Amino acid sequence: VQLQASGGGLVQAGASLRLSCVASERTFRWLNMGWFRQAPGKEREFVATIRYGSSNADYADSVKGRFTIASDNAKNTVFLQMNSLKPEDTAVYYCAARTIVGKSSYNYWGQGTLVTVSS
Fold first, then answer.
1. Do residues 119 and 108 make contact, with C-beta atoms less than 8 angstroms apart?
2. Which residues pair with 116 in a beta bridge?
3. Residue 46 CB contacts under 8 Å (≥ 6 apart), including other chains
4. Mean pLDDT score of the chain, rounded to an integer?
5. Using alpha carbons only, what angle is made at residue 62 by residues 60 and 65, rounded to the nearest 5 degrees?
6. I want to staple 44 with a disulfide (CB 3.0 to 4.6 A). Which of 11, 38, 56, 113 is the partner?
């Protein structure tokens, strides 16, 4: 299974972007799908996660109130709606899936999509 992330781009501060992550197999079932990001020179950090078949989501404090994660299970797609973008949101954004019960780590990763926010 491959995860394909898309939707990144160059925007000005205050703008919005919507990232998408599609699983290559329609039968792919996951427990959690998450978004992570890695800014230049920094470690990868958690952004948001959502449980399969649920609207329950968790967010990093830095994006709460600005970002929304949602899923379309019929299309095996997860979205990250990013509003009120700030220059500090600039990073490569990765989607990831957790499929193993009892393990908290994400075991499938997409290739990343670059988000650049100018001031």
1. no
2. 10
3. 34, 36, 60
4. 95
5. 85
6. 38
